[in-house]
Amino acid sequence: MKKTGNLEVRAETSRQMKHCIQQERVQKLVCCIIRTDQRDVPVEREGKENIMFENKTEAEARKEILDLVAEYADKFHNQKKEFHEGDRIPYASRVYDSREMVNLVDSSLEFWLTSGRYTDEFEKKLAEYLHVRYCALVNSGSSANLIAFMTLTSPLLGERRVKRGDEIITVAAGFPTTVTPAIQYGAVPVFVDVTIPQYNIDVTKLEAALSDKTKAVMIAHTLGNPFDLKAVKEFCEKHNLWLVEDNCDALGSRYTINGEEKFTGTVGDIGTSSFYPPHHMTMGEGGAVYTDNPLLNKIIRSFRDWGRDCVCPSGHDNLCGHRFDRQYGELPLGYDHKYVYSHFGYNLKATDLQAAIGCAQLEKFPTFVERRRHNFDRLRAALAETEDRLILPVPAENSRPSWFGFLITCKEGTDRNKLVQYIESKGIQTRMLFAGNLIKHPCFDQMRASGKGYRVIGDLSVTDRVMNNTFWVGVYPGMTDEMIDYMAKTITEAVNQ
Questions:
Q1: Among the options 221, 279, 337, 343, which is catalytic?
Q2: With the C-alpha atoms ordered 158, 163, 167, 169, is the resulting torsion angle positive or negative?
Q3: pTM for the whole structure
Q4: The domain at 365-441+454-495 falls in which architecture?
């Protein structure tokens, strides 16, 4: 017994020592992060905390900090819990590991904060992934849509520029920020109905929506399912219209057009993405605007960066070589090109902290896409027996979606509210299809009352059906097969009540 007791004492002592060491390492990590940017402060003013960096180069100190961050992340952030039926299943969530946290701290240690080397890296790598020439990182998907639309208003586009009173073809069954920039600018959205079970624009209504004021089509790929890009692209080319693809819910989706498989967001003139936490990848906040058109890219970057004419990135001057020898507008000859403004723009840049996270996310992004497809296929197969009561989603023809969610429409006789309440009571988070019908919302009260500011093609009957009878659940890559199976079981139970 004595021997056993000694063993127990030694084991407990060992545990305590490990705990103390761990606490000490965390404390060191905190001190390191707080004080790393104070490189010029004398040691005598620093106290004992700096002793850990004695006789070390900055590179060695940084490595030690980042190694500790990785260890911290693995210990406290990457502990997956076993799923039990009834546990909360969100419709979406972040999927990350130590790499994202290491990149984040690495960027913070530089203390550049605004767009920098990680921004450059992310823009380059996302452009390479999508096979486009240009990519501009912004601070949100909403900002991406704002810039995409405002780009079309630039005087540099001549007769093709969008002016106040011009019309933009879109849908009401979507997220507001696809439409908001046009309304705020003074353009007129023209709403076209959608189809079920793809939940995208009804392309048979495009010609009816056309007028002599139509300048562009700006619509989203719904929850990863591409709209009929072939028909919409042909319509835009026939009538010399701009095409903006809101790709915020479809990053990684593919569509075959004219025998070539392309990523959604790259078929039209401009594509946009969002990196809000629920989306296909995350930076916390963040978005991107991308194009193959060099003129559009110039305008995109101008609107993002205050509207300036200069193309020099932060921290660089006079890349054009003509900073002080040209005349712009009615400014005096030689006025500093850094402060010449060709558009009424914004400051919508992301921080390098966000970009650092995005770079790590992008490395694992292809696996995210494959897991989304796996989860979608598994859920759809498991719900096949419910198709007498529910309409299940169907991929668009010629597409390989990167699914953002799993849309379900209740058939006649099935009450959506009761179904959703039952599913939510079992711990499964649900969502409506965004606005349902945007023009029914309070933000349209004044326009509805006046009958001005927008046009509607037909009666939007399918859009209203989506508003009343459709909901969706998630298929994000953090979901396990057990979660998917439980969702299928619960939805089936709800239908059979």
A1: 279
A2: positive
A3: 0.89
A4: Alpha-Beta Complex (3.90)
